[in-house]
Amino acid sequence: MLIFVINPGSTSTKIAAFQNEQVLWKEVIDHPDQDICSFAKIADQYRYRMEAIITVLKEKAYQLEQFHAIVGRGGLLKPMPGGTYLVDEYLVNESHNAPGGEHASNLGAVIAYHLAQSVNIPSYIVDPVAVDEMEPVARLSGHPELPRISLSHALNMKAVARKVARDLGKSYEDMNFLIAHLGGGISVTPHRRGQMIDVNNANHEGPFSPERCGTLPSAQLIKLCYAGKYTEKEMLTKVLKEGGLYAYLRTKDAREAEKRMTEGDAQARLVLEAMCYQVAKEIGAMSTVLAGQVDRIVLTGGLAHSQFITEEITRRVSFIAPVTLVPGEEEMEALALGALRVLKKEETAKIYRV
Ligand SMILES: Nc1ncnc2c1ncn2[C@@H]1O[C@H](COP(=O)(O)OP(=O)(O)OP(=O)(O)O)[C@@H](O)[C@H]1O
Ligand SMILES: CCCC(=O)O
């Protein structure tokens, strides 16, 4: 089976061709700031990104007709269980209208669907950002007007969970994991026998990350919002794009922060230690969701490449369960494998309706 994979990110679109489980090629199409900033909404980038993808396909001498399916990263749809979903017009319209908010991944389904329609093959999304498998007790925030929302790096976390389980000779559905995706944003999730039963919303809650604030003191936040200093858009940028590491150190790059730390910058050390402290604290909190029945803690995402960061977290949480490192992310493989499970009839594609 030949599968075409499309993963739109905030500054790039990653594409790849897979022959069954094997990657044939991967390409990162970078989108310069001045291009991206010229669009008012993510949905407006559709034609721009589509044309860039078609250009690369032509350069690689691939025809859409050669593929058996196209799979895109799924975005901020309404809450939905994990799995592989067939993309249809309903799902495309929802992705276009972005009910859960603006995110580049909203374009994954739209682009995959239109490319696939043009050559009459199916298109899918897999474990989108909006995967919601939270238990009822996890949904209460403390105020009924502000229910907790599940937004996370579900795609990579579920792929990593399957891989770690496989390496242990088990299936994902047999295991209890605590998985922390440590990227530009951070998700910490208890996975109970294949279900992500809670998660810090990676945009709104939990540890601060290279670019996001995570949980903030709520009354202080309200006062700042009403202080007349910032517009709503500025506040959202502060919390989602210019928070965390960036707010303290003016860099989102943990490698740069670590370099400064090793050169003696005490503030860089404090901020990195605080980020690890918050991640460890969240892992500790989530271990109670599994009542301490944890087979493995898994650290994944870009920050899991760092020895300093993984050791700082591990020394605080290894009393809970052994810690496994899976640095980086495997989103392209996860998308291809999700589509493949359906094409091989190991799984039935779900239909998204809410
Ligand atoms: N070898 C490394 N050592 C330390 N930090 C690293 C290393 N490689 C990447 N990072 C850091 O990881 C962070 C980005 O992680 P990642 O690439 O997983 O994020 P992303 O894909 O941009 O965002 P997200 O994972 O939230 O979708 C950055 O702060 C980057 O500096
Ligand atoms: C909101 C979680 C997903 C991401 O940060 O890309």
Automatic annotation (TrEMBL):
UniProt superkingdom: Bacteria
Q: Where in the cell is it found?
A: Cytoplasm
The enzyme's main class, written as a single word, is: transferase
Q: Which UniProt keyword terms apply here?
A: ATP-binding, Cytoplasm, Kinase, Nucleotide-binding, Transferase
Gene Ontology MF, one: butyrate kinase activity
Similarity remark: Belongs to the acetokinase family.
* Protein name (Swiss-Prot/TrEMBL): Probable butyrate kinase
Identify the gene encoding this protein.
buk
